[in-house]
């Protein structure tokens, strides 16, 4: 029987190519590769020699041009790969920005043979990948798990990261935040919440992630589990490496502007947590709440999300004004 989620992938990929991005794979180092969607204009068409030439999505930095517009990097969360997470944002941004959508390690086609599962390692690899793609400065937009990676990139690579936009995320997952969140939501572990292995588990995840009650047939849930929740052992290790001790937690002094763009009905990382984080980050941090939206704010209210995102991006480039 045809997997409905897998069957729609070519359609989504076709729409993304029409929006101006295409897949490209980068070797970060031997044993580590990351998949990206990159601006079409940055990839030179290969010259055919005797029927040969570079295949689409070829590895490495050959045949690449540097982006000519301000760069926006969209970093996904834990329940889906990059282009699925950001499918409603890409087309809204490509006219004025060079948009890059990575798959973090163990999502999509990104893999490593290294044992490090920390957000710092994800940030390190993402930074190396962007540089190999010719990116010198960028704004990182991170959702949930991707927000923690974005914060790490901003902290460790300030010369690369100009500004940060974060939705439904925190600076670091301390053991106290993890325990309190899981207890409040009624889950025994992060893996039970974020790595469901049954239709019931996926429905439970969606019920806390979305403000509006979503209904899909069970078959669609099964198909989504099969396609999107691969590399389960490695992803469980990512979740384990995410949690740090309270005594190890600290608040970096970020030189960048940071914008918190939040669903006001987020049940995973509540509004109070976002306001507290804004105060901790200081005067360079700003906050914008979006009504009638939960953790999946960019999917539930994409038009409002995109409008607010573009307003912030335009404020970084004073010669531009959003439509």
Structure at a glance:
This protein has helices at residues 4-19, 82-85, 90-93, 119-132, 145-156, 175-185, 190-194, 199-209, 218-228, 232-242, 271-281, 297-300, 302-316, and strands at residues 21-29, 32-39, 71-75, 98-102, 111-112, 138-143, 161-167, 173-174, 243-244, 257-263, 285-290.
Structure description:
Helices cover 40% and strands 18% of the residues. Helix 4 crosses helix 5. The termini are far apart. The protein has helices spanning 4-19, 82-85, 90-93, 119-132, 145-156, 175-185, 190-194, 199-209, 218-228, 232-242, 271-281, 297-300, 302-316; strands at residues 21-29, 32-39, 71-75, 98-102, 111-112, 138-143, 161-167, 173-174, 243-244, 257-263, 285-290. With 323 residues, it is α/β, with parallel strands linked by helices. The strands form two sheets. Strands 1, 2, 3, 4, 5, 6, 7, 10 and 11 form a nine-stranded mixed beta sheet that branches. Strands 8-9 form a two-stranded parallel sheet.
Q: What's the alpha carbon Rg, rounded to whole Å?
A: 19 Å
Number of helices: 13
Strand/helix succession = HEEEHHEEHEHEEHHHHHEEHEHH
Q: In this structure, how is the largest beta sheet organized?
A: 9 strands, mixed
DSSP summary, beta strand count: 11
Strand content: 15-25%
Q: Helicity range of the residues? A: 25-40%
> Are there runs of 5+ residues with pLDDT below 50, and where?
50-61, 319-323
Mean pLDDT: 90
SSE-based structural type: alpha/beta
How far do the termini sit from each other?
A: 44 Å
Gross morphology is globular
């Amino acid at each position: 029987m045809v997997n409905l989620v897998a069957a729609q992938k070519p359609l989504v990929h076709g729409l993304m190519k029409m929006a101006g991005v295409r897949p490209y794979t980068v070797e970060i180092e031997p044993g580590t590769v990351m998949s990206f969607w990159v601006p079409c204009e940055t990839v030179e068409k290969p010259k055919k020699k005797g029927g040969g030439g570079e295949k689409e999505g070829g590895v490495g930095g050959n045949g690449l041009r540097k982006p000519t517009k301000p760069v926006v990097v969209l970093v996904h969360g834990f329940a889906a790969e990059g282009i699925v997470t950001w499918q409603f944002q890409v087309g809204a941004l490509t006219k004025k920005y060079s948009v890059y959508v990575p798959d973090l390690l163990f999502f999509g086609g990104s893999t490593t043979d290294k044992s490090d599962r920390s957000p710092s390692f994800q940030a390190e690899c993402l930074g190396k990948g962007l540089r190999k793609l010719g990116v010198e400065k960028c704004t990182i937009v991170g959702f949930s798990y991707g927000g923690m990676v974005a914060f790490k990139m901003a902290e460790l690579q300030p010369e690369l990261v100009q500004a940060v936009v974060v939705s439904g995320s925190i600076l670091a997952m301390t053991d106290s935040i993890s325990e309190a969140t899981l207890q409040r939501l009624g889950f025994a572990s992060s893996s039970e919440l974020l790595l469901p292995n049954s239709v019931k588990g996926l429905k439970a995840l969606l019920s806390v992630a979305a403000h509006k009650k979503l209904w899909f047939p069970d078959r669609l849930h099964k198909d989504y589990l099969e396609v999107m929740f691969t590399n389960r052992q490695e992803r469980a290790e990512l979740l384990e490496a995410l949690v740090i001790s309270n005594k190890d937690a600290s608040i970096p002094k970020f030189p960048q502007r940071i914008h918190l763009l939040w669903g006001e009905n987020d049940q995973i990382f509540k509004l109070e947590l976002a306001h507290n984080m804004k105060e901790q980050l200081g005067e360079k941090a700003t906050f914008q709440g979006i009504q009638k939206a939960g953790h999946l704010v960019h999917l539930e209210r994409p038009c409002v999300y995109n409008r607010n995102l573009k307003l912030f991006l335009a404020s970084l480039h004073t010669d531009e004004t959003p439509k």
